[in-house]
Write a structure and sequence with these properties.
Structural class: alpha+beta
Distance between the termini: 102 Å
Largest sheet: 5 strands, mixed
CATH class of the largest domain: Alpha Beta
Strand order of the largest sheet: 15-14-13-18-19
CATH topology of the largest domain: Glutaredoxin
Number of domains: 3
Number of helices: 13
Amino acid sequence: MNHKFSIPAILFFLFLFVFQANAQSAKQGEFLVKGTIKGVSSGVIHLLSNGAVATDSAVITNGQFVMRGKIGQPEQKPFFITPGNWAFRAIIENGDITLEIDTTGAQHQYVKNSDYPLIWEIKESGSKVADAYNQFKNESGQTANIAILRKLKGPNSGYDEATANKKADSISTVLITKQKAWIENYINKYPESFAGVFIYSQFCELFSQLYNSTPPDLANILEKFSGPAKESDYYKALAAEAAIVKNTQLNNIAPDFTLLKRDKTKFTLSATKGKVTMIDFWASWCVPCRNAIPNWKKVYAKYHQKGLEIVSVANDKNWKDWITALDKEKMPWIQVIDEFVSTDKGSKSKALDMYSTHYIPFYVLLDREGKILMTSGNEDALTEKIAELLQ
């Protein structure tokens, strides 16, 4: 039997389909993300692990998508949209989540002539963690001040580089102070809150970007958390960072490591005990690192016979790039290359992470017993300290 539908009937079933799609809700133990994207009408959106591996994806149709999946605990996750290489981050937790994404004002960045724009305009609802995080950003002044900082660093700021940097430093100092006060007040009220430890982890990330270091009171803040907050991956990562910071404090024995030299024989840091040793964290691709090499050659030539040793640890994943740099620079001291391990949180380096190194070049100076005397990215300060010890 043939069935014929009238136009009104077809419209009814189409409406019913759309209604049912919009009426979807998350099942127990799952998340359901409904999103709209202004500026992208079609394509595919990928939910990534922090190691940049796609774990879920959804088709974008008429600027809309629906994505369903599972997550253990709330987490800020990276998203990637193709075509266009658009990227953004949003907080995902089990339940119904709505995202309103606007590509207007995205930060364009080019890698090998390809554009990878970062989307900043994200409105999220349905997540309690996201609600708390948005409250933090607005009430601490982060939203407004980050916009000012981006403008200052932009090509049309109207300021010369020195003036722009001075103004940015002033804004950053005020921002960090307000953020710290807001977070401490929130944690005091809600010590068990997952949102509290997540927000503090984001504060630590921004602090690291602005000051190339870990907040000095990290361990004290962590003591304020209790219950579910301490079970989160964010707390565990911060606790591990605090332990590293404690181990690398001045006068502590330097954490030992064993890495490979260019001939693939093993070198262990503690083998330098008995000498004043400078660990030089660098990379073949790091211009400031390589600019510092002529100075270290002079320092090494002057003080090596008096007891100075230098151990350069390369933050290179590509051995060929490292070897090419070694052949060009011809550094006469010990050269080793760091090891990297891929995790679902990204790539971790062995020695760099062991010393909680947030930037390079970075230097660690050890006394003859292997105790840490000084840590700094300041080439002149290290040179002066070495001269003081070995004149």
